[in-house]
Write a structure and sequence with these properties.
There is one protein chain. By secondary structure, this protein is of the alpha/beta class. It has a single domain (about 10-245), classed as Rossmann fold. It is about 45% helix and about 15% strand. The chain has eight helices and seven strands. It has helices at about 20-30, 40-50, 70-80, 100-125, 150-170, 190-200, 200-210, 220-230, and strands at about 10-15, 35-40, 60, 85-90, 130-135, 175-180, 240-245. It has a seven-stranded parallel sheet with strand order 3-2-1-4-5-6-7, sandwiched between helices. α1 packs parallel to α2 (about 40-50) and α3 (about 70-80) packs parallel to α4 (about 100-125).
């Protein structure tokens, strides 16, 4: 299916590795010009080189999204460089696992405040697009409790009504907003790869909970996110799409 993304302009935060990189590359393969940011300059430069192999324009900056001023400036610079903005993907997460004050503070700063700041900076540009779309990457931990208490799940849950409100309030302006919530996603250097190496018993126990017998891949999450970002999903907004291989057991009506 042609997703009608050729010539569109996209921003992906945390676009140098994992899910964010897969989203950025898939958008580029569909013909989007893509701007990315991430903390590591080397990772950003390497990802930009990979994006340009698709023949699209790629723009990137190394920054910490917790620096909201720098994040807002990046969104504006990306829109200027690309000549507009059609898609904004908020992907960065602190992935807070500890229950200490600093873990909570980082999670709130990065998962909540940086998502809101990035989205709000993008909205004026998206409103000028004929097919504006916002995608926020969530987690199944926001909809079903499993394991110990963690900031990660709590702060991601706070974004669910925010995305729903964006969908409702921006619909009249032609801008859609959706969330994609992955289950366990495995990739080299990711949290589950590190768990497999450092704590194989925990990894085996978590893997056993997956009905498909495996964890998901960044590409499988990217496929869902890019579809929702595309004009082919033009009547889908305000939703939270679970991409988890039937990991969660809740029934959603």
């Amino acid at each position: 299916m042609d997703l009608d993304l050729k010539g569109k302009k996209a921003v992906v935060t945390g676009g140098s590795r994992g899910i964010g990189r897969a989203i950025a590359l898939t958008l580029a393969e569909e013909g989007c010009d893509v701007a990315i940011c991430a903390r590591g300059r080397e990772g950003v430069e390497e990802a930009l080189a990979a994006l340009r192999k698709s023949g699209v324009k790629a723009f990137g900056q190394a920054l910490d999204v917790a620096d909201l001023k720098a994040l807002r400036a990046f969104v504006a610079a990306a829109a200027r460089d690309q000549g507009g903005l059609d898609i904004f993907v908020a992907n960065v997460s602190a992935f807070g696992m500890g229950m200490d004050d600093e873990s909570w503070r980082q999670s709130l700063d990065i998962d909540v405040m940086a998502t809101v700041a990035g989205v709000e900076a993008a909205i004026p540009f998206l409103e000028r697009s004929p097919a504006g779309a916002i995608i926020v990457i969530g987690t199944v931990g926001a909809v079903e409790v499993a394991g110990p208490m963690r900031p990660y799940a709590a702060v991601k849950a706070a974004l669910v009504p925010y995305v729903k409100a964006l969908g409702r309030n921006l619909a009249a302006k032609g801008v859609r907003a959706n969330m994609v919530s992955p289950g366990n996603v495995y990739f080299k250097g990711g949290v589950w790869h590190r768990t497999e190496e450092k704590n194989p018993e925990v990894f085996k126990a978590v893997l056993a909970r997956n009905p498909t017998g495996r964890m998901g891949s960044p590409q499988e999450v990217a496929n869902a996110a890019v579809f929702l970002a595309s004009p082919r999903a033009s009547f889908i907004t305000g939703t939270n799409l679970i991409v988890d291989g039937a990991l969660t057991q809740r029934v959603q009506f």
